[in-house]
Every structure is written in structure tokens, then in C-alpha cells.
Design brief:
Strand order of the largest sheet: 4-3-2-5-1-6-8-7
Helix content: 25-40%
Structural class: alpha/beta
Amino acid sequence: MRPLKYSINVTLDGCVDHREGIADEEGHRHAAGNLARADALLFGRVTYEMMEEAWRPPASEAMPDWTQPFARTIDRARKYVVSSTLARVDWNAELLLGDLGPAVQQLKDQPGDGLLVGGVTLPTALAELGLIDEYEFVVQPRVAGHGPTLLAGLSKPLSLTLVGREEFSSGAVAMRYRPRS
């Protein structure tokens, strides 16, 4: 069974707007490592379209040199996209069809190293279904003063156990948690 891991940048006040994180070489190297350790990526429509626009060549070729390992890794990664509005996808992607819970569970039941989910709305739905095996919050040393906020709308609190942490020179801290049984 492949574990499903969720990784997201979040400010001290809980904002998960991707524009509020610190974009630097160390953070990109960490994110590229997360991507490389996953058999596939799982995105909702918004995150898929945002990532494709930013990281699919030739757009990614205009980025700084230190972003290129991340760009190459995400470009070649297998991707599954959850969407009720897209008719088709490409960029090494396929639409994940059917009911969300059983469709994602079927992906998890396949052999491999793991799946990585990013974004805001889809991970909240997956957390609600109890399908996320590990959460990584890369806490940015910033206060955004706005949303969207981390896992907003969950029907009940998540109880988590810290299983790892990594500090970055920017002051960001990546903390990994697993759900408590």
C-alpha cells in the first residue's frame, strides 16, 4: 500500500496562499525531494492548472537556475487530477474518475513508495475522508493577514503526532505529522 502524504506551505497565521511562502533554493530543494520520493502526484483542478502554468516547459525555463531541479522533477512526475469540470488533461496526467474516496483508496492500494497531494480544497476533502497518512506543514516565518487557511472546513479536529522536523536558513520549519489512531 502506498501512503498518501500532504505537503503545504503555511504562514504563522494559517494562510496557505502559495504567494505567501518564501521562495528560495533550500525550500525548492526540499520540495523537489518530496516530489522525487512519490510515485505520483494528486492535484485538484486549481492546483493542477497553477502548477502546469508555472512549471511545465517552456514556462519553467524562464525561472532561476536554482528552481530547475524542482521544475524537472515535477515535469516528469506522474499526475492524477481530480476535477468535475476538466474534460481532459495532459502533462503526464490523467483524470481521476468516480467517487473521490474509493478512487484515491484504489491508488493507495497499488504497490509503490507513495502519493503526494498538494493544494487546498482537495486535501481538505481527503483529510475529511481519513485518507491522508502523513501531513507536512512547511511553516513560513510570516503573518499574511488573510486566507485561505489551512484545512478550513473540517468537520472535526485532527489529532496528529509529530514524526519529524527540518529547519531552513530562511526561518521556515518543515514539520511532519501522522494521524493518531
